[in-house]
Amino acid sequence: MVRAGLTVERLAVAGAELADEAGYEGITVSALARRFGVKDASLYSHVRNLRELRQRVTLYAAGEFVDSIAAAVAGRAGKDALVAFADAYRAYALAHPGRYAATQHQVDPELLAGSTVLARTVDTTYGMLRAYGLGEPDLTDAVRLLRSTFHGYITLEAEGGFGHPREVQRSWERGVEALHVLLEHWPRNEEGDEEHE
To answer: In degrees, to the nearest 5, what angle opens at C-alpha 41 toward C-alphas 37 and 43?
Structure first.
């Protein structure tokens, strides 16, 4: 075990590995201290408490997650970009369940302010949707729909929730295709009109 050279970055990486092994709730100060062969108190030189430790893991995993999606989407547009985005999203979530679970947790504003993760996530997601010509608030609504659809499908798949013999991969592909059709025919927002009535 490594006993020296602890940094916030090394703790975040080790915490992400631990999350995949033991689940997000398995990230504890004691578990990481054991991994590095040090006393719990040694970790408190780098993080204030368990909450910050887990949030550091969330930031690390979120950065890794969005980078994998951005690489998949690069140079693509429209349906090709949506398919690449969706497939990269699913691949990461299934390969790294603990890290993916970490990305579902919010991070305190002061920690988030020192990171580029949020900006990269917005740029990648909104960039993928650019070809559909959506403006606000439709763009935000579309992002929420995609995220909740992907998350629900992946969660059910990971837990063995699909009992029908239909191949799960084919249903995924058809679902993403249906999302593409929906995005192309997105019902235009009328909230602005309602405000003037």
So the answer is: 70
